[in-house]
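Appendix B. Chain record.
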Amino acid sequence: MSASPRTIVIGAGMGGLAAAFALAARGLPVTLVERHATPGGRMRHVTVAGRAFDAGPTVFTMRWVFEDLFARAGLALDEHLPLHRAELLARHSWVGSEPLDLFSDVERSAAAIETLSGAKDADAYRRFAAKSEAMFDTLDTTFMRAPRPDPLTLGLRAGVGGLPGLLRTEPFSTLWASLARTFDDPRLRQLFARYATYCGSSPFRAPATLMLIAHVERAGVWLVEGGMQTLARTLAERSAALGVDCRHGTGVARIETANDRVSGVVLEDGERLPADAVVFNGDTAALTTGLLGEAVTRATRPRTDPSLSAVTRCQVARPSGFELAHHTVFFGGDYPDEFDAIFRRRESTDDPTVYVCAQDRTGDVAAGSAASDWSDTRAAPDAAPGTAPRAIPSAAPGSERLFALVNAPARAHTSKEVAAAEARMDDALARHGLVTDEEAGRAITAPDDFAALFPATDGALYGRPTHGWAGSFNRPGSRARVRGLYLAGGSVHPGAGVPMAALSGQLAADALVADLER
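C-alpha coordinates predicted for this chain:
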Protein backbone atom coordinates (compact mmCIF):
# COMPACT_ATOMS: atom_id res chain seq x y z
CA MET A 1 0.00 0.00 0.00
CA SER A 2 1.33 3.43 -0.89
CA ALA A 3 2.42 6.00 1.70
CA SER A 4 -0.72 8.07 1.14
CA PRO A 5 -3.26 5.49 -0.01
CA ARG A 6 -6.24 6.56 -2.03
CA THR A 7 -9.19 5.29 -0.04
CA ILE A 8 -12.76 5.07 -1.27
CA VAL A 9 -15.58 4.57 1.22
CA ILE A 10 -18.72 3.13 -0.36
CA GLY A 11 -21.88 4.12 1.51
CA ALA A 12 -22.58 7.07 3.79
CA GLY A 13 -24.41 5.08 6.43
CA MET A 14 -23.14 5.37 9.97
CA GLY A 15 -20.32 2.87 9.44
CA GLY A 16 -19.11 4.59 6.28
CA LEU A 17 -19.35 8.05 7.80
CA ALA A 18 -17.39 6.95 10.86
CA ALA A 19 -14.72 5.28 8.72
CA ALA A 20 -14.31 8.30 6.42
CA PHE A 21 -14.19 10.65 9.41
CA ALA A 22 -11.61 8.55 11.27
CA LEU A 23 -9.39 8.13 8.20
CA ALA A 24 -9.52 11.83 7.36
CA ALA A 25 -8.64 12.63 10.98
CA ARG A 26 -5.42 10.67 10.34
CA GLY A 27 -4.71 12.87 7.33
CA LEU A 28 -5.48 10.24 4.68
CA PRO A 29 -7.14 11.19 1.38
CA VAL A 30 -10.69 9.80 1.28
CA THR A 31 -13.49 9.83 -1.27
CA LEU A 32 -16.94 8.95 0.11
CA VAL A 33 -19.51 7.83 -2.47
CA GLU A 34 -23.19 7.40 -1.64
CA ARG A 35 -25.95 6.38 -4.07
CA HIS A 36 -28.59 8.39 -2.21
CA ALA A 37 -28.83 12.16 -2.24
CA THR A 38 -28.28 12.52 1.50
CA PRO A 39 -26.03 10.81 4.08
CA GLY A 40 -27.26 8.56 6.85
CA GLY A 41 -28.26 5.25 5.32
CA ARG A 42 -30.98 3.84 7.53
CA MET A 43 -30.99 7.13 9.49
CA ARG A 44 -33.25 8.62 6.88
CA HIS A 45 -35.79 11.41 6.99
CA VAL A 46 -39.23 11.13 5.43
CA THR A 47 -41.29 14.27 4.91
CA VAL A 48 -45.07 14.22 5.33
CA ALA A 49 -47.04 17.44 4.90
CA GLY A 50 -43.83 19.46 5.13
CA ARG A 51 -42.77 17.88 8.44
CA ALA A 52 -39.67 15.70 8.64
CA PHE A 53 -39.66 12.38 10.49
CA ASP A 54 -36.91 10.17 11.75
CA ALA A 55 -37.93 7.13 9.70
CA GLY A 56 -35.16 4.80 10.85
CA PRO A 57 -33.33 4.65 14.18
CA THR A 58 -34.93 6.91 16.79
CA VAL A 59 -32.73 6.17 19.81
CA PHE A 60 -29.27 7.65 20.39
CA THR A 61 -27.19 5.74 22.96
CA MET A 62 -23.53 5.06 23.77
CA ARG A 63 -22.66 8.71 23.47
CA TRP A 64 -19.06 7.92 24.40
CA VAL A 65 -18.57 6.16 21.06
CA PHE A 66 -19.13 9.45 19.25
CA GLU A 67 -17.15 11.45 21.78
CA ASP A 68 -14.19 9.16 21.06
CA LEU A 69 -14.74 9.47 17.32
CA PHE A 70 -14.77 13.27 17.43
CA ALA A 71 -11.78 13.32 19.75
CA ARG A 72 -9.76 11.56 17.04
CA ALA A 73 -10.05 14.77 15.05
CA GLY A 74 -9.41 17.03 18.04
CA LEU A 75 -13.10 17.97 18.20
CA ALA A 76 -15.61 18.02 21.05
CA LEU A 77 -18.93 16.32 20.33
CA ASP A 78 -20.88 18.86 22.40
CA GLU A 79 -19.71 21.69 20.17
CA HIS A 80 -21.08 20.10 17.02
CA LEU A 81 -24.05 17.91 17.97
CA PRO A 82 -26.87 19.29 20.19
CA LEU A 83 -28.01 16.51 22.53
CA HIS A 84 -30.55 16.39 25.37
CA ARG A 85 -30.56 13.49 27.81
CA ALA A 86 -33.91 11.76 28.41
CA GLU A 87 -34.71 10.69 31.95
CA LEU A 88 -37.74 8.68 30.81
CA LEU A 89 -36.40 5.86 28.64
CA ALA A 90 -39.70 4.47 27.40
CA ARG A 91 -43.33 3.83 28.33
CA HIS A 92 -44.63 0.26 28.07
CA SER A 93 -48.25 -0.82 27.73
CA TRP A 94 -50.15 -4.10 27.96
CA VAL A 95 -53.85 -4.54 27.27
CA GLY A 96 -55.80 -4.47 30.53
CA SER A 97 -52.83 -3.23 32.55
CA GLU A 98 -51.42 0.00 33.84
CA PRO A 99 -48.45 1.18 31.77
CA LEU A 100 -44.89 1.04 33.10
CA ASP A 101 -42.29 3.75 32.66
CA LEU A 102 -38.59 2.93 32.80
CA PHE A 103 -36.04 5.58 33.71
CA SER A 104 -32.30 6.08 33.54
CA ASP A 105 -32.30 5.95 37.36
CA VAL A 106 -32.42 2.35 38.63
CA GLU A 107 -34.29 3.16 41.84
CA ARG A 108 -36.91 5.21 40.01
CA SER A 109 -37.54 2.25 37.69
CA ALA A 110 -37.56 -0.19 40.62
CA ALA A 111 -40.23 1.90 42.34
CA ALA A 112 -42.37 1.83 39.19
CA ILE A 113 -41.92 -1.94 38.91
CA GLU A 114 -42.85 -2.42 42.56
CA THR A 115 -46.10 -0.54 41.94
CA LEU A 116 -46.86 -2.72 38.91
CA SER A 117 -45.53 -6.12 39.97
CA GLY A 118 -44.57 -6.08 43.63
CA ALA A 119 -41.46 -5.87 45.78
CA LYS A 120 -40.04 -9.23 44.68
CA ASP A 121 -39.81 -8.22 41.03
CA ALA A 122 -38.52 -4.78 42.02
CA ASP A 123 -35.62 -6.49 43.79
CA ALA A 124 -35.20 -8.77 40.78
CA TYR A 125 -34.90 -5.69 38.60
CA ARG A 126 -32.14 -4.27 40.77
CA ARG A 127 -30.21 -7.54 40.36
CA PHE A 128 -30.96 -7.54 36.65
CA ALA A 129 -29.61 -3.99 36.33
CA ALA A 130 -26.38 -4.93 38.10
CA LYS A 131 -26.05 -8.08 36.01
CA SER A 132 -26.56 -6.32 32.68
CA GLU A 133 -24.01 -3.67 33.68
CA ALA A 134 -21.48 -6.37 34.55
CA MET A 135 -22.09 -8.02 31.18
CA PHE A 136 -21.49 -4.74 29.40
CA ASP A 137 -18.29 -4.10 31.35
CA THR A 138 -17.04 -7.58 30.48
CA LEU A 139 -17.64 -7.24 26.73
CA ASP A 140 -17.09 -3.52 26.11
CA THR A 141 -13.36 -3.58 25.40
CA THR A 142 -12.89 -7.32 24.81
CA PHE A 143 -15.61 -7.64 22.17
CA MET A 144 -17.49 -4.52 21.07
CA ARG A 145 -14.57 -2.11 20.72
CA ALA A 146 -12.07 -4.75 19.63
CA PRO A 147 -11.48 -6.42 16.26
CA ARG A 148 -13.78 -9.34 15.61
CA PRO A 149 -12.83 -12.18 17.94
CA ASP A 150 -13.49 -15.89 17.79
CA PRO A 151 -14.31 -17.62 21.09
CA LEU A 152 -10.64 -18.43 21.72
CA THR A 153 -9.47 -14.87 21.04
CA LEU A 154 -12.19 -13.49 23.28
CA GLY A 155 -11.07 -15.79 26.07
CA LEU A 156 -7.45 -14.72 25.62
CA ARG A 157 -8.42 -11.04 25.74
CA ALA A 158 -10.36 -11.57 28.94
CA GLY A 159 -7.49 -13.50 30.53
CA VAL A 160 -7.75 -16.29 33.06
CA GLY A 161 -9.21 -13.93 35.63
CA GLY A 162 -11.84 -12.74 33.17
CA LEU A 163 -13.18 -16.15 32.16
CA PRO A 164 -15.76 -16.33 34.98
CA GLY A 165 -17.07 -12.97 33.83
CA LEU A 166 -17.43 -14.25 30.28
CA LEU A 167 -19.41 -17.24 31.51
CA ARG A 168 -21.65 -14.90 33.49
CA THR A 169 -22.69 -13.25 30.21
CA GLU A 170 -24.81 -16.41 29.73
CA PRO A 171 -24.02 -17.11 26.07
CA PHE A 172 -25.52 -20.61 26.28
CA SER A 173 -28.91 -19.52 27.61
CA THR A 174 -31.56 -17.75 25.58
CA LEU A 175 -32.60 -14.29 26.64
CA TRP A 176 -36.16 -15.49 27.23
CA ALA A 177 -35.07 -18.39 29.42
CA SER A 178 -32.85 -16.13 31.52
CA LEU A 179 -35.63 -13.61 32.01
CA ALA A 180 -38.04 -16.38 33.00
CA ARG A 181 -35.62 -17.26 35.81
CA THR A 182 -35.38 -13.60 36.83
CA PHE A 183 -38.91 -12.16 36.86
CA ASP A 184 -42.18 -13.64 38.09
CA ASP A 185 -44.30 -11.14 36.16
CA PRO A 186 -44.59 -12.23 32.49
CA ARG A 187 -45.01 -8.58 31.49
CA LEU A 188 -41.47 -7.85 32.68
CA ARG A 189 -40.10 -10.85 30.80
CA GLN A 190 -41.74 -9.50 27.66
CA LEU A 191 -40.44 -5.99 28.27
CA PHE A 192 -36.79 -6.92 28.69
CA ALA A 193 -36.94 -9.57 25.97
CA ARG A 194 -37.64 -6.74 23.54
CA TYR A 195 -33.94 -5.85 23.55
CA ALA A 196 -33.26 -8.79 21.22
CA THR A 197 -35.17 -6.92 18.53
CA TYR A 198 -32.57 -4.14 18.69
CA CYS A 199 -30.34 -6.66 16.90
CA GLY A 200 -33.12 -7.87 14.63
CA SER A 201 -33.38 -11.13 16.57
CA SER A 202 -35.83 -13.32 18.44
CA PRO A 203 -35.52 -13.36 22.24
CA PHE A 204 -36.38 -17.07 22.09
CA ARG A 205 -33.25 -17.76 20.03
CA ALA A 206 -30.89 -14.92 21.00
CA PRO A 207 -28.37 -15.39 23.84
CA ALA A 208 -29.05 -13.88 27.25
CA THR A 209 -25.93 -11.77 26.67
CA LEU A 210 -28.14 -9.25 24.85
CA MET A 211 -29.54 -8.09 28.17
CA LEU A 212 -26.49 -5.79 28.25
CA ILE A 213 -28.53 -3.51 25.95
CA ALA A 214 -30.67 -2.69 28.97
CA HIS A 215 -27.59 -1.20 30.60
CA VAL A 216 -26.72 0.73 27.44
CA GLU A 217 -30.11 2.46 27.61
CA ARG A 218 -29.84 3.18 31.33
CA ALA A 219 -26.42 4.71 30.72
CA GLY A 220 -28.06 7.35 28.54
CA VAL A 221 -30.75 7.83 25.92
CA TRP A 222 -30.33 11.14 24.15
CA LEU A 223 -32.59 13.21 21.92
CA VAL A 224 -30.84 14.86 18.99
CA GLU A 225 -31.99 18.32 17.97
CA GLY A 226 -33.47 18.08 14.51
CA GLY A 227 -33.65 14.29 14.71
CA MET A 228 -31.17 11.52 14.06
CA GLN A 229 -30.49 12.83 10.55
CA THR A 230 -28.64 15.69 12.28
CA LEU A 231 -26.03 13.16 13.41
CA ALA A 232 -25.47 11.99 9.84
CA ARG A 233 -25.33 15.52 8.45
CA THR A 234 -22.92 16.61 11.18
CA LEU A 235 -20.53 13.74 10.50
CA ALA A 236 -20.71 14.38 6.75
CA GLU A 237 -20.04 18.10 7.23
CA ARG A 238 -17.15 17.52 9.63
CA SER A 239 -15.72 14.88 7.28
CA ALA A 240 -15.82 17.35 4.40
CA ALA A 241 -14.09 19.93 6.60
CA LEU A 242 -11.34 17.37 7.20
CA GLY A 243 -10.89 16.97 3.46
CA VAL A 244 -13.18 14.07 2.55
CA ASP A 245 -14.51 14.31 -1.00
CA CYS A 246 -18.19 13.54 -0.40
CA ARG A 247 -20.11 12.48 -3.52
CA HIS A 248 -23.83 11.95 -2.96
CA GLY A 249 -26.12 10.62 -5.65
CA THR A 250 -23.20 8.49 -6.87
CA GLY A 251 -23.76 4.74 -7.15
CA VAL A 252 -21.01 2.13 -7.49
CA ALA A 253 -21.30 -0.46 -10.26
CA ARG A 254 -18.37 -2.66 -9.21
CA ILE A 255 -15.17 -2.95 -7.21
CA GLU A 256 -12.13 -3.84 -9.28
CA THR A 257 -9.04 -5.80 -8.30
CA ALA A 258 -5.56 -6.27 -9.70
CA ASN A 259 -2.92 -8.70 -8.49
CA ASP A 260 -5.39 -10.08 -5.94
CA ARG A 261 -6.02 -6.75 -4.23
CA VAL A 262 -8.39 -3.82 -4.61
CA SER A 263 -7.44 -1.42 -7.41
CA GLY A 264 -10.45 0.87 -7.75
CA VAL A 265 -14.19 1.25 -8.18
CA VAL A 266 -16.29 1.91 -11.27
CA LEU A 267 -19.25 4.21 -10.75
CA GLU A 268 -22.67 3.66 -12.28
CA ASP A 269 -22.01 6.48 -14.74
CA GLY A 270 -18.88 4.68 -15.98
CA GLU A 271 -16.26 6.81 -14.21
CA ARG A 272 -13.41 4.83 -12.69
CA LEU A 273 -11.85 5.90 -9.40
CA PRO A 274 -8.47 4.30 -8.66
CA ALA A 275 -8.02 3.17 -5.07
CA ASP A 276 -5.48 1.49 -2.87
CA ALA A 277 -8.14 0.62 -0.31
CA VAL A 278 -11.93 0.43 -0.23
CA VAL A 279 -14.20 0.47 2.82
CA PHE A 280 -17.55 -1.06 1.96
CA ASN A 281 -20.41 0.14 4.17
CA GLY A 282 -23.36 -1.96 3.10
CA ASP A 283 -24.87 -5.38 3.62
CA THR A 284 -22.16 -7.95 2.94
CA ALA A 285 -24.65 -9.92 0.82
CA ALA A 286 -24.17 -7.24 -1.85
CA LEU A 287 -20.61 -8.49 -2.18
CA THR A 288 -21.23 -12.24 -2.05
CA THR A 289 -24.14 -12.12 -4.52
CA GLY A 290 -22.12 -10.24 -7.12
CA LEU A 291 -23.89 -6.88 -7.01
CA LEU A 292 -20.50 -5.18 -6.87
CA GLY A 293 -18.76 -7.38 -9.41
CA GLU A 294 -17.37 -10.89 -9.61
CA ALA A 295 -13.97 -9.84 -8.28
CA VAL A 296 -15.23 -9.48 -4.71
CA THR A 297 -17.79 -12.28 -4.38
CA ARG A 298 -15.35 -14.19 -2.17
CA ALA A 299 -14.85 -11.20 0.14
CA THR A 300 -16.74 -12.84 2.99
CA ARG A 301 -19.04 -15.74 3.78
CA PRO A 302 -22.57 -15.58 2.37
CA ARG A 303 -25.29 -14.47 4.75
CA THR A 304 -27.89 -17.12 5.59
CA ASP A 305 -30.88 -16.17 7.71
CA PRO A 306 -31.96 -12.53 7.53
CA SER A 307 -32.83 -10.41 10.56
CA LEU A 308 -36.12 -8.67 11.20
CA SER A 309 -37.68 -6.28 8.74
CA ALA A 310 -40.59 -3.96 9.50
CA VAL A 311 -43.62 -2.11 8.27
CA THR A 312 -43.37 1.50 9.40
CA ARG A 313 -45.72 4.46 9.24
CA CYS A 314 -44.92 8.14 9.47
CA GLN A 315 -48.19 9.86 10.27
CA VAL A 316 -49.24 13.41 11.08
CA ALA A 317 -52.20 12.88 13.37
CA ARG A 318 -53.93 13.83 16.58
CA PRO A 319 -53.57 11.00 19.14
CA SER A 320 -56.09 10.44 21.92
CA GLY A 321 -57.02 7.90 24.56
CA PHE A 322 -53.48 7.08 25.71
CA GLU A 323 -50.79 9.43 27.02
CA LEU A 324 -47.80 8.86 24.79
CA ALA A 325 -44.17 9.33 25.81
CA HIS A 326 -41.47 10.07 23.25
CA HIS A 327 -40.88 6.29 23.07
CA THR A 328 -43.86 3.99 23.77
CA VAL A 329 -44.08 0.23 23.28
CA PHE A 330 -47.49 -1.44 22.99
CA PHE A 331 -47.02 -5.16 23.57
CA GLY A 332 -48.98 -7.86 21.79
CA GLY A 333 -50.67 -10.65 23.69
CA ASP A 334 -48.70 -13.65 22.34
CA TYR A 335 -44.99 -12.89 22.27
CA PRO A 336 -43.84 -16.43 21.35
CA ASP A 337 -46.12 -16.45 18.32
CA GLU A 338 -44.88 -13.03 17.21
CA PHE A 339 -41.38 -14.39 16.64
CA ASP A 340 -42.40 -17.88 15.58
CA ALA A 341 -44.52 -16.26 12.88
CA ILE A 342 -41.66 -14.12 11.56
CA PHE A 343 -38.71 -16.49 11.78
CA ARG A 344 -40.39 -19.87 11.17
CA ARG A 345 -43.64 -19.24 9.26
CA ARG A 346 -42.27 -16.14 7.50
CA GLU A 347 -45.43 -14.15 8.17
CA SER A 348 -46.67 -11.53 10.62
CA THR A 349 -48.60 -12.31 13.78
CA ASP A 350 -52.22 -11.22 14.19
CA ASP A 351 -51.45 -9.47 17.51
CA PRO A 352 -48.19 -7.56 17.01
CA THR A 353 -46.14 -5.41 19.34
CA VAL A 354 -46.19 -1.82 18.09
CA TYR A 355 -43.49 0.77 18.76
CA VAL A 356 -44.53 4.42 18.53
CA CYS A 357 -42.13 7.38 18.59
CA ALA A 358 -44.07 10.58 19.28
CA GLN A 359 -41.43 12.85 17.83
CA ASP A 360 -42.89 16.13 19.09
CA ARG A 361 -42.95 14.94 22.71
CA THR A 362 -39.63 15.75 24.31
CA GLY A 363 -40.66 16.04 27.94
CA ASP A 364 -38.83 14.46 30.90
CA VAL A 365 -35.40 15.41 29.61
CA ALA A 366 -32.57 16.48 31.86
CA ALA A 367 -32.54 19.89 33.49
CA GLY A 368 -31.85 22.65 31.01
CA SER A 369 -33.29 20.61 28.14
CA ALA A 370 -36.99 21.32 28.37
CA ALA A 371 -39.30 20.45 25.51
CA SER A 372 -39.21 23.03 22.77
CA ASP A 373 -39.66 23.56 19.06
CA TRP A 374 -36.34 21.88 18.27
CA SER A 375 -38.11 18.51 18.04
CA ASP A 376 -40.39 19.64 15.21
CA THR A 377 -38.09 19.68 12.21
CA ARG A 378 -39.73 21.29 9.20
CA ALA A 379 -38.85 21.48 5.53
CA ALA A 380 -36.08 18.90 5.94
CA PRO A 381 -34.81 16.74 3.04
CA ASP A 382 -37.14 14.00 1.92
CA ALA A 383 -36.40 10.30 1.96
CA ALA A 384 -33.34 9.21 0.02
CA PRO A 385 -34.09 8.23 -3.57
CA GLY A 386 -34.22 4.61 -4.61
CA THR A 387 -37.83 4.11 -3.65
CA ALA A 388 -40.57 6.48 -2.64
CA PRO A 389 -42.53 5.93 0.57
CA ARG A 390 -46.22 5.48 0.04
CA ALA A 391 -47.19 9.08 0.81
CA ILE A 392 -50.71 10.38 1.33
CA PRO A 393 -50.37 14.17 1.54
CA SER A 394 -52.62 16.65 3.31
CA ALA A 395 -52.13 19.37 5.90
CA ALA A 396 -53.45 20.37 9.30
CA PRO A 397 -51.88 22.51 12.03
CA GLY A 398 -51.47 21.34 15.61
CA SER A 399 -51.06 17.65 14.88
CA GLU A 400 -48.20 15.42 16.04
CA ARG A 401 -45.59 13.42 14.18
CA LEU A 402 -46.07 9.74 15.04
CA PHE A 403 -43.64 7.11 13.78
CA ALA A 404 -45.01 3.58 14.28
CA LEU A 405 -43.33 0.24 13.61
CA VAL A 406 -44.31 -3.42 13.61
CA ASN A 407 -41.81 -6.20 12.98
CA ALA A 408 -42.14 -8.20 9.77
CA PRO A 409 -40.26 -10.96 7.96
CA ALA A 410 -37.57 -9.90 5.50
CA ARG A 411 -39.18 -10.94 2.23
CA ALA A 412 -41.30 -9.49 -0.55
CA HIS A 413 -44.75 -8.33 0.61
CA THR A 414 -47.83 -7.86 -1.50
CA SER A 415 -49.78 -4.63 -1.23
CA LYS A 416 -52.52 -6.65 0.47
CA GLU A 417 -50.07 -7.88 3.12
CA VAL A 418 -48.81 -4.34 3.75
CA ALA A 419 -52.37 -3.03 4.13
CA ALA A 420 -53.15 -5.91 6.51
CA ALA A 421 -50.05 -5.10 8.59
CA GLU A 422 -51.14 -1.48 8.93
CA ALA A 423 -54.65 -2.56 9.88
CA ARG A 424 -53.25 -4.88 12.56
CA MET A 425 -51.14 -1.97 13.80
CA ASP A 426 -54.22 0.21 14.23
CA ASP A 427 -56.21 -2.62 15.82
CA ALA A 428 -53.41 -3.28 18.32
CA LEU A 429 -53.15 0.40 19.26
CA ALA A 430 -56.92 0.62 19.68
CA ARG A 431 -56.87 -2.32 22.10
CA HIS A 432 -54.44 -0.28 24.20
CA GLY A 433 -56.75 2.72 24.02
CA LEU A 434 -54.76 4.78 21.50
CA VAL A 435 -56.60 6.30 18.56
CA THR A 436 -54.71 8.27 15.92
CA ASP A 437 -57.03 10.53 13.97
CA GLU A 438 -55.12 11.36 10.84
CA GLU A 439 -55.07 15.03 9.99
CA ALA A 440 -52.16 15.66 7.71
CA GLY A 441 -51.10 12.52 5.88
CA ARG A 442 -48.92 9.45 6.27
CA ALA A 443 -46.15 7.50 4.57
CA ILE A 444 -45.80 3.71 4.73
CA THR A 445 -42.49 1.90 4.25
CA ALA A 446 -42.62 -1.88 3.81
CA PRO A 447 -39.95 -4.60 3.51
CA ASP A 448 -39.94 -4.24 -0.28
CA ASP A 449 -39.15 -0.54 0.10
CA PHE A 450 -36.27 -1.30 2.47
CA ALA A 451 -35.00 -3.91 0.01
CA ALA A 452 -34.94 -1.28 -2.75
CA LEU A 453 -33.28 1.31 -0.52
CA PHE A 454 -30.62 -1.08 0.76
CA PRO A 455 -29.52 -3.58 -1.93
CA ALA A 456 -29.13 -7.29 -1.17
CA THR A 457 -30.84 -7.02 2.23
CA ASP A 458 -34.20 -8.52 1.17
CA GLY A 459 -35.57 -5.83 3.47
CA ALA A 460 -33.66 -7.04 6.57
CA LEU A 461 -32.76 -4.07 8.73
CA TYR A 462 -30.07 -5.56 10.99
CA GLY A 463 -27.89 -7.79 8.80
CA ARG A 464 -27.50 -11.19 10.44
CA PRO A 465 -29.65 -12.01 13.48
CA THR A 466 -27.88 -12.83 16.73
CA HIS A 467 -29.18 -16.36 17.27
CA GLY A 468 -27.44 -19.07 19.25
CA TRP A 469 -24.34 -18.82 21.41
CA ALA A 470 -22.14 -18.25 18.34
CA GLY A 471 -24.42 -15.69 16.71
CA SER A 472 -22.19 -12.78 17.64
CA PHE A 473 -19.19 -14.53 16.08
CA ASN A 474 -20.89 -15.15 12.73
CA ARG A 475 -20.50 -11.59 11.49
CA PRO A 476 -17.39 -10.85 9.45
CA GLY A 477 -14.70 -8.57 10.81
CA SER A 478 -13.18 -5.43 9.36
CA ARG A 479 -10.84 -7.15 6.90
CA ALA A 480 -12.43 -8.86 3.91
CA ARG A 481 -10.88 -11.83 2.14
CA VAL A 482 -9.74 -9.52 -0.65
CA ARG A 483 -6.65 -7.47 0.22
CA GLY A 484 -7.34 -3.78 0.56
CA LEU A 485 -11.08 -4.29 1.08
CA TYR A 486 -12.50 -3.42 4.50
CA LEU A 487 -16.02 -3.83 5.85
CA ALA A 488 -18.25 -1.60 7.97
CA GLY A 489 -21.92 -1.37 8.85
CA GLY A 490 -24.58 -3.26 10.75
CA SER A 491 -23.95 -6.57 8.96
CA VAL A 492 -20.38 -6.83 10.30
CA HIS A 493 -18.77 -6.89 13.74
CA PRO A 494 -19.79 -5.65 16.30
CA GLY A 495 -23.36 -5.64 14.95
CA ALA A 496 -26.43 -3.58 14.22
CA GLY A 497 -27.46 -0.25 15.71
CA VAL A 498 -26.17 3.30 15.37
CA PRO A 499 -23.29 3.10 17.90
CA MET A 500 -22.32 -0.43 16.81
CA ALA A 501 -22.16 0.67 13.16
CA ALA A 502 -20.03 3.65 14.19
CA LEU A 503 -17.69 1.28 16.01
CA SER A 504 -17.48 -0.89 12.90
CA GLY A 505 -16.37 2.15 10.91
CA GLN A 506 -13.70 2.99 13.46
CA LEU A 507 -12.49 -0.62 13.45
CA ALA A 508 -12.31 -0.62 9.64
CA ALA A 509 -10.29 2.61 9.71
CA ASP A 510 -7.98 1.19 12.38
CA ALA A 511 -7.42 -2.00 10.38
CA LEU A 512 -6.64 -0.02 7.23
CA VAL A 513 -4.15 2.21 9.03
CA ALA A 514 -2.52 -0.78 10.75
CA ASP A 515 -2.06 -2.50 7.38
CA LEU A 516 -0.63 0.71 5.95
CA GLU A 517 1.95 0.92 8.72
CA ARG A 518 3.20 -2.65 8.27
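Further analysis of this model is presented in Appendix C.
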